[in-house]
Write a structure and sequence with these properties.
Layout lengths: L19 H10 L6 H10 L5 E4 L6 H15 L14 E4 L3 H14 L7 E4 L5 H10 L4 E4 L1 H9 L10 E4 L2 H6 L3 H9 L8 E6 L4 H10 L4 E4 L1 H4 L5 E7 L5 H9 L7 E4 L3 H13 L4 E4 L5 H13 L4 E4 L1 H4 L9 E4 L6 H8 L9 E7 L7 H8 L4 E3 L42
Parallel strand pairs: 1-6, 1-7, 2-4, 2-5, 3-4, 5-6, 8-13, 8-14, 9-11, 9-12, 10-11, 12-13
Helix pairs in contact: 2-3, 3-4, 6-8, 15-16
Length: 428
Amino acid sequence: MTSDPKHTGDLRFSDLNLDKRLLDAITAIGFEFCTPIQAETLPWTLACEDLIGQAQTGTGKTAAFLITAIQSLLETPIPESDRCASEPRVLALAPTRELAMQIARDAEQLCQHTGHNVVTVVGGMHYDKQRDQLQNEIVDILVATPGRLIDFLGSQDVFLDQIDILILDEADRMLDMGFIPDVKRIIRKCTPKDDRQTLLFSATFNQDVLNLASMWTSNAEFVEIEPEQKTAERVEQTVYLVGDDEKLPVLVNFLRRPEVEKALVFANRRDQCRDLEEDLRNQGVKVALMSGEIAQNKRLKTLDQFKKGSIQVLVATDVAGRGIHVNGVTHVFNYNLPDNAEDYVHRIGRTGRAGKHGVSISFAGENDSFSLPAIEAYISQKLKTAVPDEALMAAMDNPPITRKRGRRPQGQGGRGGQGGRNQRQRRN
């Protein structure tokens, strides 16, 4: 979680009449002033109103909805003797494992003085452990990805009819990734929308997302931070016009510059990411791969090494990149321009966080320069273009890896009732 007083208004968290235990945790994290999304949303959400929020990652929206949820739990405590295991009071849905894990970590930080239990259920790790937690623990906040939660709903290891607050994060990405049918199944198992508070956040809102939001919320307030955040104001953006065979040497020479401390490199496909990670390693770069095909425990270890600086560069796909919330990323490189202009915005948003300056370098070759006009139209600005100088075109230390691409040989190839529920009333 990040908060940047230089880019906030005058609203302090201490002005919001929060429970002292929660406020102490907020202070311990280092927060004092609300970010714009927090200042705009918290007065509504703390009054128990449904909300639809448009804001990118890195703006503080995670803290906004978690503070709301924890304050609600503190205002309406239910004795453990009146609660059952497998019945969470808050459900936060996220599209990726990395994002869900980040939300859970932030929730645990904010709950450090409140005693609330945060449980995470995501695919790719600890199925039995997650099931045991659901079956045997009083769960206050459940953070989940749709697929794994569907599994536990089907086996009746979790019940959602006691949900007070439903949080849907990055709704646009859930739509893009095909999760909406699962999300609809999940929401049908939740408390009815008039009996719960629903908070929905998305970086972008097309008509499909807006239609879903209207189905799942009740008289929701709409808050939009996007005009200020659509392009990262603190990110210097340059597009280098290069041939496809020039991309690798230019990237390698860039990475050797002393100002490139932590870098993310994005490519459009998993196979491109695999090749690129291998190519960079061959040139002596401290690099690791982040994609959906990497085991979750390895991804978490890699992220930790990246944060500590033992890895300089992460090569990532767009989906994996959404879960990378690391302060201090100095550079983002687009080895390929994305097909979707929105993905460009999400990529460059990994740098220039927490008030720091960031740099975005994109390579436009013969095959991807056609994406430029759509990106420029989306961000409402003309991107600076350049041709690499001689230093960036210098020969690499090692010959590039030669790969043969050929055809693969044949043959490989619930429960009912709301009994005793202490429902929080909306304030008039």
